[in-house]
Structures are given as C-alpha cells and as structure tokens.
Amino acid sequence: SQQGEEDPQALSIQEGENATMNCSYKTSINNLQWYRQNSGRGLVHLILIRSNEREKHSGRLRVTLDTSKKSSSLLITASRAADTASYFCATDEETSGSRLTFGEGTQLTVNP
Amino acid sequence: EPEVTQTPSHQVTQMGQEVILRCVPISNHLYFYWYRQILGQKVEFLVSFYNNEISEKSEIFDDQFSVERPDGSNFTLKIRSTKLEDSAMYFCASRGTSYNSPLHFGNGTRLTVT
Question: How far is A5 from chain B (nearest CA, A)?
Fold first, then answer.
C-alpha cells in the first residue's frame, strides 16, 4: 500500500451526523495535514498536526495522530451539506525534502 | 486573503504540442510546487522549487517537463511535447517560510490533450 491511504474511500451521511475519516502512512513524518477539495477546484488546507502532537481541534474539526500506529483520523462534527467534498491527508515525510505526499482521498457526501 | 492564481483554467492542445501553464504564487512565499491530478485519482507530486532551482522532483517529472520562475512573480510549468496521458488537472501551490506551514493551492489548469 502507498503512503497516505485514507479509508473509507467514500462516506455518505445525513446532515447533523459526525463523519470520521482515517489515514495511514508508512514512513516517519514531520507533520500530517488534511486538505479538502470541492469538485473541480483546488485543495484547501484544513488543519496541520505535528509529529509530537496527538490531537488538534479547529472549529468542527478534530484531528488525531498516532505515530506508533502511523495513522491519523479526521472527525467532522455536526456535518452540513456544504461539507460535501473530497478530503485528503498529506504527509510531510522526514526524508522527503519539501514535498507533501497525498493519499487517495475520501469522498464525503452529506445529505440534507 | 492572498491566493495562488493559475492561468488558463482550461487548456486544450494536440498531442506533440508544447504547453506552458502559468501560476502566480503568494508573494512572500518561498517554496513553489506543481502537482497533478488525473480525473478521479490521487494528487501526485511533480516538482518543488526553492531559491531558483528545483529542490525535488518525482519520477513523473521527466525530460519533457521543465519549470521556471522568469521574474519575481510568475512560476511556470512547461510540457515540451504533450502526450495523451498528460491530460489532467495541474495544480500550482506555494508555501511560506515556516517549516510547518501548509501549502496554498491554486484552482488548477485542466489540460486536455487530444
């Protein structure tokens, strides 16, 4: 499997429910970031968590990082139809220089 | 809020032709990137650029690709002889000086090679 794999690949929920997306990676990282992409648009940065952090919050977003398991999760609480988008995790690997490596993404659909 | 701008938004070209995709990164950023996304697939790293030179490139970024920062504001990606498989969304991104700073992406150029 590749660096930065998300699961599930697709998630469909009702407005008001919580959405949880997971990301696994393989190498040591400096930080892990989550991005959102609306259809046909560029990626928008949501949140960054450093390798020495375990949890971070930003509004309705909660990110966790478990470096021992090389995994992260993104929780969106009280979802809205406007949260419908693709969500990608991206890793800043210790040995990769300046690149970010993106995962496959989770397509989230929030039904009104 | 400052943003990364890309032009054109859509480029159609014939196989074998050269294309230049243009980007204006955020003005005080120092790291510049090109990524591509084939329809429905993951976002793939092509190249990063810092201090007027390529700092890292992927195996996709072969001799057909080149990047340039011709002046203080523009950052371009050139594909010398396009192939059908180059059809994709090409995203430019820039990053500031802080080690843990995020990437700021443009809205992309959709390249269609016919």
Answer: 10
Instruction: Write out pLDDT tens, residues A19-72.
Output: 999 999 999 999 999 999 998 789 999 999 999 999 999 999 999 999 999 999
| Interchain proximity A33–B50, CB inside 8 Å | no
pLDDT beyond 90 at A97: no
Rounded Cα distance, A74 and A21, in Å = 5
Tokens of B44: 């793939």
In angstroms, the CA B46 to CA B102 distance is: 17
SS3 labels along chain A: CCCCEEECCEEEEECCCCEEEEEECCCCEEEEEEEEECCCCCEEEEEEEECCCCEEEECCEEEEEECCCCEEEEEECCCCHHHCEEEEEEEEECCCCCCCEECCCEEEEEEC
Q: Which candidate from A30, A43, A104 shows the least CB-CB separation from B91?
A: A43
Report the chain B residue with the minimal C-alpha distance to residue A100. Answer: B45
Chain B residues near residue A48 by CB distance under 8 angstroms? 100, 102
- Enumerate the residues of chain B whose CB falls inside 8 A of the CB of residue A50: 100
Q: Which residues of chain A lie closer than 8 angstroms to B99, CB-CB?
A: 30
How high does pLDDT run on average in chain B? 93
How many residue pairs bridge chain A and chain B with CB atoms within 8 Å of each other? 62
The DSSP-derived string for B36-70 is EE-TTS-EEEEEEEETTEEEEE-TT--TTEEEE--
